[in-house]
Amino acid sequence: MNAVEAHYDRDPEREWERLARHRTEFAVTCRVLAEHLPSPPGHILDVGGGPGRYALHLSRLGYRVTLLDLSPRSLDLALERATAEGIYLPPPIRGDATALPADLTEQFDAVLLLGPLYHLPTAEERLAAVREAYRVLRPGGYVFAAFITRFAPLRDVAIHSPQWIVDNPERFRQLLEQGTNLADEAAAFPNPYFARPEEIEPLMAAGGFAPLGLQGVEGIVAGHEEAINELTGETWEAWVALNERLGREPSLFGAADHLLYSGYRPPGTQMVE
Fold this sequence. Notes:
By secondary structure, the protein is an alpha/beta fold. The protein has helices at 3-10, 12-21, 23-36, 53-60, 72-85, 123-136, 152-160, 164-167, 169-178, 200-206, 233-246, and strands spanning 43-47, 64-69, 93-94, 108-113, 137-148, 210-216, 258-264. A seven-stranded mixed beta sheet has the order 3-2-1-4-5-7-6, with helices on both faces. The longest helix has 14 residues, at 23-36.
């Protein structure tokens, strides 16, 4: 069992609840998906979708969603949640984003990569995951890829453990310069990669994709979302709309915690070598 699988296997419920705590991230991401996805039905592969927050959301809308993840306990939780709601979820697949099953070639109308690119610290691994997403998409299909931004972990450190930058000078330097923070297997967030905004579109282009847009899913409330996440009704919807709008401002990309790339496999294209 690798470090990432072990991390998510330890407490799959925590990952399920994360998007309840970070409601703006979930709500804005769902708006971006709704903007670009073709109307249901359609077949979507949710790669690294963990316990299935997005898989179940899209299933409720009428899509057929196949969930794939490294963590068997996360997949079990997704099935439990789906069963409890009376939602049909095709049998999930335990797998790796960098080496998807061979029989999935050109089977899907859309692919979600809303997590795997957080845990692929080398450029070769990230490109492999992007190219695998391209392979399993039908020509004209859509990809949605999420990235954690370079300075997001430092905002978290500033809140929870400001001494860290003094006590861990080498890891601090590595984070700033390389976007990695490689530590032991018991790390709170193993094998991470934190991306600069300007590297996202070139990575996706190298995998064969054409861009539709880049979105900071927290808008302007990254690190300041507690009061917003308590809202309901018209005021909540107004803040979601504002954060979606401002999250497309290039000047704010580096201030987001997560950036969401939307793109597509151009029709008529062949497999990327």
